[in-house]
Design brief:
Chain lengths: 805, 360
């Protein structure tokens, strides 16, 4: 919304500067976005008289002018404009002036040997347009010495401010003035609207053609005729204001409607009676009906929209835009003025469907003052009569003006309760009255009647806001808000929150880089990674590749790693910890931690290195997953690593991490080439995914005491075993067998070599393990050690068919 | 006794000539071994008369001691020389690079870092962290938050919707974290103090908007908290988050469906050469919206707005990250470009803390 200072002063008696007005607007909730003040920018520019213009002695194209600036002796100015001539009036700027059109500050200069003490200016130099054919040529009666901006009526500052959707009343200058007056900026000028008596009945009748439950679509429609008008250009002052706020003057009748829209937040429409056939019927549009609107476009309507029709058909889209056919032009002599009320929601929907945003729609969808429907029509009629002459009919009113009878019980203490601000009751009362609220009742507890132009005010909290925004939010004092208890802050994070943030740090500590990728991915990708359910598909995705909620973080990470590879960064280790979706219920949303390594990006080193280089393989992914589990303190004693994983992993190079078949917590492995191909990712790549919500919680313990540490006095003994087993035997099973052989003694089993090749039969492999025995009672004798070794061999044989190599 | 001094000179010469420890050992055996020259002399002491022993004993013993000393000295010298020679031979090129450490390479995304910072600050003020699902019911995202029917935000144009289910219910991707306010109020008895960080979504994609972004909001519900408290919390937060001693803030009346009274908050700043600095300058920058929770919202959550009251505020996590750390473009947050992540991301152990400071 824009207004000019002089326009505002029609409604507000104030001596406030434009700066103070702007500051106050922001303070009361009408945030100023820009102030354009030509008078300030152009202050040094005055009207001057060119006493003489002589040829410059040293330059053909220059003239030496003696200029009467109205301040003493004429000054000498060198001027290059072709139109500079003796006896003309133009605009002068003295040295030291900033020239907006050139972005420079003028100095005293010597041009080709002749001193120049100022400049005669073109419109472009003043920043007022494109015209730089010559200096501004003013009429002979322009007063010398007067500020040019003032004389040219460029001294009316324009303020552009934002109006929140709850404040339709501030979409008219009148309403803005009311706010400013309440904020002590001046006296609100609120003249009663005088009715214009009708000389004859309105010849055009209006019928509201709605079903009973549709009546809200048009509560009231008022119409009157002014006949015998002369529709020419509107007066200078009106055109200047309309132009200043960015509107194009058209003709007096149309300009009046626009003026009323911005002055009073009362959109109107004018029909040329000569083009209207029969009476007006206001009704729902018929599906497929069309109208050529004032913007020159044809709109196809539907039954959700309301139209104003006559015997010709649709003449206007109610509350949104008039029709081209019945519009007013210079030849109009009889004008029908419409002032109506529309359903805000219906106007909003219609405007959105048609893709039209007019000043009328903007106001009707926010809410115009119903009580001003008829006064607005009177005011517009008066303007038409004043500017275009003619004779007004009586008012034809269809429907009725709804009563505004909102009453709120309001204890003044509510202000302090909600804001902490203790204001004197009289001040609060004055604010409400200045804003147009009626206040009655005893001192502390009052009844407040809400003015018809404030559809947003519904309850006590709204009244509090009215009082506080006018009194000033800056008067609300910062009040310390300490913790409720405990001198030292207590921890606040839940288990999953702690695990989420620790997992991120753990993976970063493994040299991985955290990505945040979209929560939605393409349908085919979602399906490929276990998702794609219909309830997880967006009805209105922003792009086809962002259509379905992700079932896994892996597709996003894999595509990200490919994008990096495309940029030349082939060795990447990316991770993400974030939400994945298994259904559309809250409990179907899980937190996953996933990582993807590609190329030579291992935790130990990245890229080619003089010590050697190795591609990241599934064991790096497994190590990443294990690092998360270990960092989170998840006990891994019961963790099972089962060969194979979901379909998007390599069937022979992937594993499932679980605490039992029903407690699967994640997967790791090399990605399946087909899955990579579907994502358009060049492999190989390895990755893992853990579902953090599935991880077992730590055991609840009464104290923080750690379990007792018992250290053996006896040295541990290490024994190595090389077993030959079938190729299909899992090393994990061999390790388990060794552990099981003598649980009291075996403290660790490590696989230190796996070998296939010469010396080992086909289909077999050699697995070497180091078993650590930790005696606790006494030093073991050779015989005892031998007995344990035999047990281990026997157990390995029994569980895995292993033989000692 | 010139025999003795001749022998000593002879041994000393041999010691000096011994080029390594093995050669020195030969000299030692030759002098002090069982049949060594000095040992032989020592043996003669036993058959001497006491007078003779008195005279020769000290001489022979002295010789033995000096020879022993010479040998030890030479042995040390040879050992040192041998070690020096070995070390000289073991010289490597120390300018060869060692692998870059994982801790040096790894990065945490700025969004995660800022969420940790927020949690640190508000955790100290006694706020818990509440969370909720991204896929929300229309009721929780709009209706309960006092969005009127027909509000533009409820259109497909602005909000991501799912297809209606069998019951005709149409879920959506939450457009703000505010539904978690409702969830919290419905499931928890006041007093309530929570912050709610999370992912939010709107159908928007251009230079400054992405279809997915992050918000954090705060909610306080009890029987006495008012706008003065809200102001204090936000001032303390901004000072602490932006790590400046003073911030000047401006509260402007504004409008949100779910708060009344509502305000927008600007923070004073300077803009020099494209860099924004807080706590100085005379420009204002809008950073958040806030207000007292609307009585309708409190009522919709099953509480009595005449008994309970409180406030809420909300801001963009991505946005405050950009303001604090200077990333120029929001879209890059979600592009996973390792160059961007390495540059703007945080090292794994850069854990924000109140004692050590939020950022390094």
């Amino acid at each position: 919304m824009k207004l000019t200072l002089s326009w505002l002063k029609e409604h507000l008696d104030t001596g406030a500067s434009v700066e103070t007005v702007a500051e106050t607007l922001t303070k009361v909730g009408l945030e100023v976005e820009a102030v354009e003040d030509q008078a300030k920018v152009l202050a040094p520019y005055t009207i001057a008289y060119v006493v003489s213009a002589e040829q410059h002695p040293n330059a053909d194209r220059l003239r030496v002018c003696m200029v009467d600036t109205g301040a003493g002796e004429p000054v000498q100015v060198v001027c290059g404009a072709p139109n500079a001539r003796t006896g003309m009036k133009s605009v002068f700027s003295p040295p030291g002036t900033f020239i907006p059109g050139k972005g420079i500050t003028l100095g005293v200069g010597t041009i080709r040997g002749v001193e120049s003490r100022g400049m005669l200016c073109s419109a472009m130099e003043l920043g007022l347009g494109e015209d730089h054919d010559g200096i501004i040529d003013l009429p002979a009666d322009a007063p010398v010495g007067v500020a040019y901006a003032e004389w040219a009526h460029l001294d009316d500052p324009v303020i552009d401010f934002a109006v929140t959707p709850n404040r339709p009343d501030a979409l008219g200058v009148h309403g803005v003035a009311r706010d400013l007056a309440a904020a002590n900026l001046g006296r609100f000028i609120d003249k009663p609207v005088a009715a214009v008596p009708g000389a004859f009945p309105c010849p055009t009748r209006v019928r509201l053609d709605f079903a009973a439950d549709d009546a809200r679509l048009c509560p009231a429609f008022a119409l009157r005729l002014v006949r015998g008008v002369k529709n020419g250009p509107s007066p200078e002052w009106m055109q200047r204001r309309l132009k200043a706020i960015g509107l194009r003057p058209i003709n007096a009748l149309v300009d009046i409607t626009n003026y009323m829209t911005f002055d009073q937040n009362r959109p109107l429409h004018v029909f040329d009676l000569a083009k209207v056939k029969g009476d007006l019927v206001v009704r729902r549009a018929r599906d497929g009906e069309e109208v050529l609107a004032l913007d020159g476009r044809t709109y196809r309507l539907d039954a959700g929209m309301v139209v104003i029709t006559d015997d010709n058909g649709v003449e206007s889209i109610a509350g949104v835009m008039g029709g081209e056919h019945s519009g007013c032009d210079e030849n109009t002599t009889d004008v029908l003025i419409e002032s109506a009320l529309w359903d805000p929601l219906n106007i909003a929907t219609t405007g959105r469907k048609l893709g039209v945003n007019t000043d009328a729609r903007y106001r009707f969808e926010r809410g115009v003052d119903p009580a001003f429907c008829l006064p607005g029509l009177e005011m517009a009629t008066r303007m038409v009569l004043d500017l275009c002459g003619g004779e007004a009919s009586g008012i034809e009113l269809a429907g009725e003006i709804p009563a505004s009878d909102k009453l709120i019980d309001f204890p003044y203490a509510e202000v302090e309760r909600l804001t902490g601000l203790d204001l004197p009751v009289p001040e609060m009362k004055v604010i409400l009255r200045e804003l147009g609220f009626w206040v009655s009742g005893s001192d502390r507890y009052v009844k407040v009647a809400v003015p018809s132009w404030r559809p947003d005010v519904e309850g006590k909290a709204d009244i509090v806001e009215e009082i506080v925004r006018i009194a000033g939010l800056d008067r609300v004092l910062s009040t310390p808000f300490p913790r409720e208890e405990a001198i030292v802050a207590k921890p606040v994070l839940t288990l999953i929150q702690k695990r989420t943030r620790t997992a991120k740090r753990a993976l970063a500590a493994r040299g991985m880089v955290e990505a945040v990728t979209w929560s939605f991915i393409g349908k085919a990708e979602a399906e490929r990674f276990g998702g794609g359910q219909p309830e997880l598909a967006l009805a209105n995705p922003i792009a086809a590749e962002l259509s379905d909620m992700r079932p896994s973080l892996l597709p996003g990470l894999l595509k990200a790693s490919q994008r990096n590879a495309d940029r030349g960064f082939t060795d990447t280790a990316l991770f993400e910890v974030g939400q994945v979706f298994r259904g559309d219920k809250p409990e179907d949303q899980k937190i996953a931690a996933s990582g993807v390594r590609r190329g030579l990006a291992r935790a130990e080193a990245v890229g080619r290195h003089w010590t050697g280089a190795k591609a990241a393989d599934l064991f790096d992914a497994k190590a990443d997953a294990m690092a998360v589990l270990e960092t989170l303190g998840v006990p891994t004693g019961g963790l099972q690593v089962v060969a194979g994983g979901p379909a998007w992993f390599h069937p022979g190079r992937s594993g499932t991490l679980q605490f039992g078949p029903k407690m699967v917590v994640g997967w790791f492995g090399e990605l399946h080439p087909r899955a990579l191909e579907a994502l358009d990712v060049k492999g190989p790549a390895v990755g893992f995914e853990l579902i953090l919500d599935m991880l077992p919680p730590p055991k609840a313990k009464p104290t923080k005491v750690k379990p007792k540490l018992t250290l053996s006095d006896f040295q541990p003994i290490a024994r190595d075993f090389a077993f030959v087993v079938d190729r299909s035997v899992a090393a994990g099973d061999l390790v388990k067998a060794a552990q099981a052989a003598e649980r009291q003694l075996v403290s660790a089993v490590d696989v230190f070599d796996v070998y296939e090749g010469p010396g080992v039969p086909d289909g077999k492999k050699s697995v070497a393990i180091a078993v650590t025995l930790q005696p606790t009672e006494k030093t073991l004798t050779d015989v005892e050690i031998e007995a344990v070794a035999n047990k281990i061999v026997a157990e390995a044989q029994k569980k895995t068919g292993a033989t000692l190599r | 006794m010139s025999d003795l001094s001749a022998l000593e000179s002879e041994i000393a010469a041999a010691v000096a000539q011994a080029g390594d420890e093995a050669a020195l050992e030969v000299v030692r055996v030759g002098a002090l071994g069982k049949k060594g020259s000095v040992s032989d002399l020592l043996k003669t002491l036993g058959s001497m008369s006491s007078d003779e022993r008195k005279e020769k004993g000290p001489l022979i013993n002295g010789l033995r001691d000096r020879v022993t000393g010479l040998l030890a000295e030479r042995r040390t010298a040879l050992k040192d020389a041998a070690l020096d020679a070995r070390l000289a031979a073991e010289r490597v090129d120390v300018t060869l690079p060692s692998p870059e450490s994982a801790l040096g390479r790894g990065r945490v995304h700025p969004i995660s870092q800022v969420i940790d910072e927020l949690t640190t600050i508000f955790g100290d003020m006694g706020f818990a962290v509440a969370e909720g699902p991204d896929i929300e019911a229309d009721f929780l995202n709009f209706t309960a938050l006092n969005f009127p029917v027909g509000h533009p935000a409820r259109e497909m144009h602005d909000t991501f919707f799912f297809n209606p289910d069998a019951n005709g219910e149409r879920k959506l991707l939450r457009t703000h974290t505010s539904p978690v306010q409702v969830r919290t109020m419905m499931s928890q008895k006041p007093p309530i103090r929570v912050i709610i960080p999370g992912r939010t979504y709107r159908c928007d994609s251009d230079q400054t908007h992405t279809p997915m972004f992050h918000q954090v909001e705060g909610l306080v519900i009890d029987k006495g908290s008012h706008m003065g408290h809200l102001k204090w919390i936000l001032e303390e937060f901004c000072r602490s988050f932006f790590e400046v001693d003073n911030v000047k803030m401006r509260f402007r009346p504004s409008f949100f469906p779910f708060t009344e009274p509502s305000a927008e908050v600007d923070i004073q700043c300077s803009r020099k050469g494209g860099e924004i600095r807080f706590g100085e300058g005379d420009d204002w920058l809008e950073i958040l919206g806030c207000g007292m929770v609307h009585p309708n919202v409190i009522r919709n959550c099953g509480l009595d707005p005449d008994e309970y009251q409180g406030f809420a505020w909300g801001m963009g996590i991505d946005r405050i990250a950009m303001l604090k750390y200077g990333m120029p473009d929001l879209r890059a947050f979600f592009d996973a470009d390792v160059r961007w992540l390495s540059h703007y991301g945080f090292r794994p152990l850069d854990m924000p803390s109140l004692t050590a400071g939020l950022s390094v």
